[in-house]
Design brief:
Among the domains are: 74 residues, Ubiquitin-like (UB roll); 97 residues, Ankyrin repeat-containing domain (Serine Threonine Protein Phosphatase 5, Tetratricopeptide repeat), CATH 1.25.40.20. It contains 38 helices and 5 strands. Strands 2-1-5-3-4 form a 5-stranded mixed β-sheet. Strand 1 and strand 2 form a beta hairpin. Helix 3 runs parallel beside helix 5. The longest helix has 13 residues. The radius of gyration is 49 Å and the shape is elongated. The termini are far apart. InterPro entries: Ankyrin_rpt, Ankyrin_rpt-contain_sf, Multifunctional_ANK_Repeat. This is ANK1 protein. It comes from Symbiodinium natans.
Length: 675
């Protein structure tokens, strides 16, 4: 029996045997008795207990049965300065300063700032000596912060990772399982904040091993996620169920491989799937590429054919992550052509991720290269879509179908061309890919147009050998040969001409159409002449190109060479018997175009080749009129010297001299030449 009485003999409280036993379990019986009596009296007075005439301290040994005398004293209120001193002393763990301040009877649970007692501050800063002193002064170890439901000294010690203060508080009877506002217990909070040693201390001191924290997660689950192997081992040794909430899955999900290895060795269920996502431990071990765990799971007969919520097997996960060694270890126990919800096999996944070594391993194990996914796409089409030439070569090398089409009608060749994957398209042609299949819109694709427009001579040759017509039109209206001419691609021009391309086939290109009724047409020789590509002009002339064909604006090739001042091309055309007096729609010969281009050399060449120096246009203008109209003094003098008639009048009755005076009255050189 233990009784506490006032000096008058009045019994204040009497503790039963059960109460005494519980208080002894908390540590110091004397401390527990003082705390209980202080609670009974209230916080407005200080309680001191006397045993055999001496003041009871935490270390006082009380021999039962016993009767303690109680003395009630009034607390003194410290000043603001003294409160600040207490706060600083506790924060710095300055026990001497704190003892001096408490030499006067201060209430130990008094708030020293807006929400905390001195013991809260000691817990926050890890001030062990001050915490012990305050506890001896009957500070409440379970007092929450003001205006809060949590924030006991133990909460603050755990929150700041103060293990030693936490130990002192627990010895003084702090509630080890009091929840934080977040729902965490001190144990789960310590684990979540990576205070593994502190979590171990709490558990060893008797904190609950199964009480859930935030997100309703047990200490075991949180420890598995955080990778706290010591905590997981302690809880496993305590007999906790290792399959509740699947801590093995959580450890693998968070790459806590040491914890996962231990749980497997401790016989956690290796087949247990995630309740929502369907992952098994083998799925996750494969996704992370952890060979040892994969081998351990296989040794425990983990089923590699189990599927997750997306119908993916462990092989899908290993392939997607590119872990070759794991893929190789699964080859014997996995179906290589299993399809997920999207219809994709492991080979599809490896191709899309560009895992070349994994693709090679799967193909060597005879994985099907022709399986189609939900969109009808094969691994080859996926590789083409990714623009991966070496992957395409690997797949074609294993005799995959180079002619099959997707559900939308894409063939390997049409997809390569559509994606501008020229090297892949060339390789497919060399592999004899189907060039006669309909495209995604049900049309026969013109692969030769792609080869020509992209300057791919090799593919063009292969297509022409496959009987593709060399006389088609590009989308912009050019003939293939005209496009090659304008691109200055002599090799491509030769390729088309050897395939019997029509050297005089006209297209819809016409940059100088001047009349509404002029049909837009242009032959390859017009294109080469207008671009000044002499070597192509020569090649076309060798193939009997028509030197006097007019384009849509009425210009012949020689007009174009005069316009571009290309003397070499003009000479080649003249050598091929091009007419020097070929008229355009306005009756202008190449000589007029040369004058307008201010090219004296071209005028000299044309006159040397027999151009008519006095041939008039429909308006009666002669070359000399034209020189006068454009202010070409040197050309006018040369024409006069060459015998051009200065007195010819045009349809308006004007002579060249009249035009010179009208347009260039200040040009004495021109006037003198025409006077």
């Amino acid at each position: 029996m233990l009784q506490v009485s006032r000096a008058s003999g009045e019994c204040v409280v009497e503790f039963t045997a059960d109460e005494i036993r519980r208080m002894r379990d908390q540590g110091s019986l004397a401390r527990a008795v003082r705390s209980r009596v202080q609670e009974r009296i209230g916080s407005t007075h200080e309680v001191r207990l006397l045993y055999n005439g001496a003041v009871v301290s935490d270390r006082t040994e009380i021999n039962l049965p016993a009767c303690l005398d109680m003395v009630v004293l009034d607390w003194e209120l410290p000043s603001e300065e003294q409160l600040a001193g207490i706060k600083v002393a506790v924060a710095r763990d300055n026990i001497n300063a704190l003892q001096r301040l408490f030499s006067t009877s201060y209430y130990p649970n008094l708030l020293v700032d807006d929400s905390r007692t001195a013991l809260h501050i000691a817990a926050t800063h890890g001030s062990v000596r001050c915490a012990l002193f305050l506890i001896r002064q009957a500070a409440d170890v379970n007092a929450p912060r003001a205006n809060s439901t949590d924030g006991t000294p133990l909460h603050l010690a755990v929150e700041h990772g103060q293990s030693m203060v936490a130990h002192v508080l627990m010895d003084a009877g702090a509630d080890k399982d009091a929840p934080f506002a977040s729902g965490d217990t001190p144990v789960t909070f310590a684990i979540s904040n990576d205070f593994e040693n502190l979590a171990m201390l709490l558990l060893e001191e008797g904190a609950s091993k199964s009480k859930t924290g935030s997100w309703s997660e047990t200490p075991l689950l949180k420890a598995a996620k955080a990778g706290h192997l010591k905590v997981v081992r302690f809880l496993a040794d305590a007999g906790l169920d290792l399959d509740t909430d699947a801590p093995l899955l959580r450890a693998l999900e968070h790459k806590r491989f040491a914890v996962a290895q231990f749980l497997l060795e401790a016989r956690a269920n290796p087949h247990l799937p995630h309740p929502l996502l369907g992952w098994t431990p083998l799925h996750l071990a494969c996704a992370h590429g952890h060979d040892d765990l994969v081998h351990h799971l296989q040794a425990q007969r983990a089923d590699a054919r189990l599927r997750d919520s997306k119908d993916r097997t462990a092989m899908h996960r290993a392939v997607e992550s590119g872990h070759l060694s794991v893929v190789n270890s699964l080859l014997e126990s996995s179906a290589l052509d299993e399809q997920d919800q999207q219809g994709e096999t492991p080979l599809h996944c490896a191709v899309k991720k560009s895992h070349h070594d994994v693709v090679a391993s799967l193909l060597a194990a005879r994985a099907s290269a022709d399986t189609v996914n939900a969109t009808g796409s094969t691994p080859l089409l996926s590789a083409i879509k990714c623009g991966d030439l070496s992957m395409v070569q690997s797949l074609v090398g294993k005799s995959c179908d180079v002619e099959g089409a997707s559900a939308k009608g894409w063939t390997p060749m049409s997809l390569a061309v559509s994606n501008c994957s020229f090297e892949i398209a060339s390789f497919l042609l060399e592999s004899r890919a189907n060039v006669a299949s309909l495209d995604s819109q049900g049309r026969l694709p013109d692969f030769l147009e792609w080869a020509v427009s992209s300057g791919q001579v090799g593919p063009a040759s292969l297509l022409l050998e496959s009987r593709a017509s060399p006389n088609g039109l590009c989308k912009d209206g050019h003939t293939y040969l005209s496009f090659a001419c304008s691109s200055n691609d002599l090799d491509l021009v030769d390729t088309l001409l050897r395939a019997k391309a029509d050297v005089n086939q006209v297209d819809d290109w016409n940059p100088r159409a001047t009349r509404d009724d002029a049909p837009p047409k242009s032959a390859p020789l017009h294109r080469a002449s207008s671009c000044g590509h002499h070597h192509i002009v020569v090649r076309l002339l060798e193939s009997d190109a028509d030197t006097d064909m007019l384009d849509g604006a009425g210009w012949g090739p020689l007009h174009w060479t005069a316009h571009t001042r290309s003397l070499e091309s003009a000479q080649s055309l003249l050598d091929a018997q091009a007419s020097t007096d070929l008229e355009n729609f306005d009756g202008q010969t190449p000589l007029f175009v040369a004058i307008e281009a201010y090219s004296l050399d071209m005028v000299h060449l044309l006159l040397q080749s027999g151009a008519n120096k006095n041939k008039a246009t429909k308006e009666g203008a002669t070359p000399l009129h034209w020189a006068a109209m454009h202010g070409c003094g040197q050309i006018a003098r040369f024409l006069v010297i060459s015998g051009a008639d200065k007195n010819t009048r045009d349809a308006e009755g004007w002579t060249p001299y009249d035009w010179a005076c009208y347009n260039y009255s200040g040009d004495k050189e021109l006037a003198n030449a025409l006077r």
